[in-house]
Amino acid sequence: MSPAQTVFAAELAANEASEHRPLIITLFSVFVVATLVITVWAGRQTKDAADFYAGGRSFSAFQNGLAVSGDYMSAASFLGIAGAIALFGYDGFLYSIGFLVAWLVALLLVAEPLRNSGRYTMGDVLAYRMRQRPVRTAAGTSTIVVSIFYLLAQMAGAGVLVSLLLGITSDAGKILIVALVGVLMIVYVTIGGMKGTTWVQMVKAVLLIGGTILITFLVLLKFDFNISDLLGKAADNSGAGAAFLEPGLQYGASGTTKLDFISLGIALVLGTAGLPHILIRFYTVPNAKAARKSVNWAIGIIGAFYLMTIALGFGAAALIGKDEIVASNPSGNTAAPLLALHVGGVDSAWGAILLATISAVAFATILAVVAGLTLASSSSFAHDIYANVIRKGQATEKEEMKAARWATVFIGIVSIALGALARDLNVAGLVALAFAVAASANLPTILYSLFWKRFTTQGALWSIYGGLIVAVGLVLFSPVVSGDPTAMFPDVDFAWFPLKNPGIISIPFGFLMGWLGTVLSKEEPDKAKYAELEVRSLTGTGAH
Amino acid sequence: MATDAPPPSKEERPLPSAEEFSEVQQSAEFAELRRSFRSFAFPLTIAFVAWYLLYVLLSNYAGGFMGTKLFGNINVAFVFGIAQFVTTFLIAWWYSRHAAAKLDPKAEAIKTRMEGGA
């Protein structure tokens, strides 16, 4: 396809979409109204803090497994991975694999002990045997930072979708949509709390899986269910030939990019078990056994979904072709919705309906994940920082919930503002940064707290702040922020750190600081408290 | 509907005392529970992380091997990727079976005794 034709094709897709704008808006409105009804219903049942933070701990393992999947399969998974595979072939597939294998860390080491010994937040477990105020402040800080990185990615995804679907290319229009997403999420969280948010996640997970199965089926149908043919066609149309199906297309260029690949790989596999919005989901089930089962459900659902990203990504490469994908969005973020249009037929009503459906699903995905992230950060603010640090544990439940609701409004406004700034960034890459920060600041502290009896307050503070500062600092001076055509600020260059993902440095650093802080600290670890934590975390004695 | 079930968290049970916790932590029964958890979960974690890193490293530094076509357009890299999915499912199933058989009964026994005595 010549460049002119390519631009034409992309415009065609956008026109196609905007012709069917009423349909897209209708489908999306149905989702919004349905979820608002759920939210109000859940809100009426939300009476105490356990309802607000943990959905009353009354969800079944399957329900929570579905909700965990909903929280996890973000815009990055759906739009980002499909785009990464469509553009870079096999290298994009690393995201799918890393995102899934990561669940084993959560299953084997974190989910059950956390459920057994914590109450509402990640900070509950980190601060259990430490001096409460400094450790809770640190846990709250890293929760909010990780969640904001993740929020940025979702907001960027929202902006991308809008420009494709509604033909809104003006900045004001995109900002308006980001603001709409922000307002909806504030409503979900303040009114529905964890109960409402969990139901929204479940609905969204079902929609996303349903939509993905449909597109996967239609793609495979075009190739008579012969995966080899699909891959062959993808390689042919990618312009890269057989290399498209081999590792190295994106990361194989030099020693530095290979290092970046390892860095990304480590961040993906170690990040999940440190993501606050995932961790608090384990509090919504009655006990550790149910937490384990919900992780198993999640592994099954998420695994099936990521297997289907093969069909989405390679299908997009085979059926749309690289040029049109890039013309529509340089990072490939629109490959999945475009694929829906193509499998349905570019000029047919069926194609337009599919495009509208998949786009509405992608919107639902963003909205739900954004709500989950906001809940995690406002819970941590209210429970860790407000109740335990500012009020020193003297706040009533009512005051704490009020603080959580105000924090939600505040975080909502902050993320609207940041989302407006981040609207043109690469979605999957941004989420990988959130994973790197979570793996550097949170995971070492969680593992040391649970399993190392010598671990001290100073160790906890050093590993949280050390991991956090190094991870965020390296991102700041990386090609993600400056010195690269795809950077946040492409016109300036202060990128002295060559890798796009900081994980390979910051994650070992977080672990090292936790160890160093502990062996260098003058205080003795609290043996009695560790006995309590260890017995509780392994047996569930006295679990909330 | 599950959400209508009475939340189990509402009645706050008093926690056992610090002495009781220390006593249990020192007991042979708890040591056995800890051992059967750690001796299963820790080596398995190291194993799957190593298996995953092997995949990442091969992708990076053994491009020729990974690009070897096995049948049609399916190459070693593709099979390796799918194998990561399969092992993830298997490990999740294996751990859950171990936990249900070896960990849950021991944990349950200790919990019942401690909460009953509190």
UniProtKB/TrEMBL annotation, chain A:
Keywords: Cell membrane, Membrane, Symport, Transmembrane, Transmembrane helix, Transport. It is found in: Cell membrane. InterPro entries: Na/Glc_symporter_sf, Na/solute_symporter, Sodium:Solute_Symporter. It is a multi-pass membrane protein. Signal peptide: none annotated. CDD domains: SLC5sbd_u4. Gene3D superfamilies: Sodium/glucose cotransporter (1.20.1730.10). The chain crosses the membrane at residues 23-43, 64-87, 93-111, 138-166, 172-191, 203-221, 261-283, 295-320, 349-382, 403-422, 428-450, 462-482, 502-520. Pfam families: SSF. Its main location: membrane. Belongs to the sodium:solute symporter (SSF) (TC 2.A.21) family. This is Cation acetate symporter. It comes from Streptomyces olivaceus.
Automatic annotation (TrEMBL), chain B:
Residues 1-20 are annotated as: Disordered. InterPro entries: DUF485 (IPR007436), MFS_trans_sf (IPR036259). The keyword Transmembrane applies. The chain crosses the membrane at residues 40-58, 70-95. Keywords: Membrane, Transmembrane, Transmembrane helix. Pfam families: DUF485. SUPFAM superfamilies: MFS general substrate transporter. This is DUF485 domain-containing protein.
